[in-house]
Amino acid sequence: MSSKSSFYVRKRPCIALIGMAGSGKSTLGKLLSQSLSWAHVDTDWLLEAWWGTNLQSIRDHLGLKGFLQAEEKVVLDLRLNRCVISTGGSVVYSAPAMDFLKSLGPIIYLHADLQTILKRVQNVSTRGLAMDKGQTLEDIYLQRKPLYEQYADFVVSTDQNSPQECVQLIEQWLKK
Question: Does a structural domain hold residue 145?
Answer without folding.
Answer: yes
